[in-house]
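=== RUN LOG ===
request id: a7f3
mode: sequence -> structure
chains: 1
length: 253
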Amino acid sequence: MLKYPNSSNINPQRDFIAPNLSVIIPTLNEENFLRRTIKHLFVNASHIEKLEILVIDAGSSDKTVASVQDLPVQVFVEPTFKLQKHESLNFGIKKSRGEILVFLDADTLVPKHFDSLILDIMKKKHSVGGAFEMNFVEPDLKLSLLSKLNAVRYRIWKTFYGDQAIFCKREVAIAVGGFSNTLMEAAYFCRSMKKQGNLCLINQPVETSARRFNKEGFWKVLWFDVKIWIRFILGRSLKNKAKDYWKIHPENG
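=== RESULT ===
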């Protein structure tokens, strides 16, 4: 499942020795967020010399790629992955070298010492992966309440969303076949990983943008998300929902 031809590597990263963590960032027209997110990674890493960062760009038409060309990251450009986020994520798995993989959205900021937090919690017996708590960057009462409701949800079901910086052992990502071609690919990925062992929650939040809610309206997006979550819980297919979603939110595809 995780087989791809050679990709265009725009900016080879300096040759780290045996990276502990590989951070995989799928992008499509993320010039307003990507550089800030990557610099935030470097500032907040405990061991920058053991960090590998891979950007998998699905053919951005803006300055996403150019915005990080001077940074020590690997950038792969694959226009055929447009509106197929799972392809970008799976390509990142194939190209990564770290023992632990972190799947990070381009608009999500990690907490201080995020790499040490991940490595420490992964030492727990039977741990195969996990995620961080999540808050929105924008101060808003509705968003704050939504974060609290989400915290209840992912504690009960242990299925995390992509904006929570999901992490896992590289061998586990390969064993479960990577990400599926469906909406809520991160939740399905977590569901598959739970069959391999325990998923852990790091009690420090990443901060992510609320741009979906700002663009489409809070209640409209919330209602859509609730309907999708119910379909997921009931085991109904979401494959026919993915393209419609990514056409509205191409930055997530």
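=== NOTES ===
The longest strand covers residues 198-208.
Residues 25 and 146 are 25 Å apart (CA to CA).
=== END ===
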